[in-house]
Amino acid sequence: MNKSYLITGANRGIGLALTKIIIEKGDRVIALCRKPEEAEELRAISNTQGNLNIFKADVTKEDELIKISKSIDNIDFLICNAGIMGPRGGMNDKDTNYRNISEVLMTNVAGPFFTIKSFIGKLRESKDPKIVILSSRMGTQMHHGSDAYFYRASKAAVNNIMVSFSNELNQFNIPITSFHPGWVQTDMGGSNASLSPEESASSLIEQFKELGSKNTGKFYNYEGSEISF
Ligand SMILES: NC(=O)c1ccc[n+]([C@@H]2O[C@H](COP(=O)([O-])OP(=O)(O)OC[C@H]3O[C@@H](n4cnc5c(N)ncnc54)[C@H](OP(=O)(O)O)[C@@H]3O)[C@@H](O)[C@H]2O)c1
To answer: Which domain of life is it from (predicted)?
Structure first.
């Protein structure tokens, strides 16, 4: 039977690549993005394919997410993909200020929290519900980086939140797992990255098929190996 996926930040990068592959397989995608009017690729797909619905949502705005959840049917798979890098430099990066730190933490940490909270009711209506968060290896505690302080911290924090959710959602048999998508050629990853968005997305989708209660609360690389965090 066809499944229904909800993806945040679906208008470009890894979110768009995931959306295209899932739509091509015949499953349904509820694609969330901040500016549907500018999401040309998504809109072009929805003009020809009936299994894509686009909604406007900023993941830092819980009211927008709740409003969408009231207007859709149940979902089987929730993918918290939306994210930002924020200031990339070291401790003296002048952009590492209150406003930019707040934006990274609100988007990458509170965003997945609000998304999961808003759509949990729709997932509970599914026979086989699953949640995935796009995190990053940059958030592991044992790293050698001295850059992107708050991106790293945000991905460490969202993995911690993933574990809390896995404990709270055990009672509903809803597994939740984080993934590192690889280093991917997107606006965030840059053109020197090692994977195309399509390569990352197709490998992630292969891994998603395997997810169950044995994986909840864990963090995986895009090719399936477990990452300690
Ligand atoms: N690329 C990599 O190498 C890499 C590596 C590790 C982890 N990741 C993670 O993978 C995920 C996707 O990354 P990407 O490379 O595809 O990034 P990207 O190309 O920069 O795309 C980011 C997406 O997130 C959306 N977004 C940002 N803030 C949002 C908000 N407040 N509300 C809703 N949507 C928002 C963007 O929408 P707008 O178009 O409106 O800005 C865009 O659709 C992120 O969580 C990232 O941290 C990526």
So the answer is: Bacteria
Neighbours of 136 (CB within 10 A): 26
H or E stretch including 220? strand 219-221
Structure pTM? 0.98
Q: Report how many helices (DSSP H) and strands (DSSP E) the chain contains, helices first.
A: 7, 7
pLDDT digits (tens, 9 = 90+) for 61-104: 999 999 999 999 999 999 999 999 999 999 999 999 999 999 99
Q: Report the amino acid identity of residue 211.
A: L
Q: Is 216 helix (H, G, I), strand (E, B) or coil?
A: coil
CA of 6 to the centre of ligand 1 (A): 15
Q: Residue 177 is inside which H or E element, if any?
A: strand 176-180
Q: Which of 188, 227, 229 to mutate to test the pocket of ligand 1 (most atoms within 8 A of CB)?
A: 188
Domains and CATH numbers, the chain: 4-221 (3.40.50.720)
Q: How far is the CA of 171 from the centre of ligand 1 (A)?
A: 31
Q: How are beta strands 4-8 and 130-134 bridged, if at all?
A: unpaired
Q: Which amino acid is it at 166?
A: S
Instruction: Name the strand (E) or helix (H) holding 30.
Output: strand 28-33
Write the Ramachandran bin of 36: left for phi over 0, alpha for psi from -120 to 50, otherwise beta: alpha
202 and 129 Cβ atoms separated by less than 8 Å: no
3 alpha carbon, distance to own chain's centre: 17
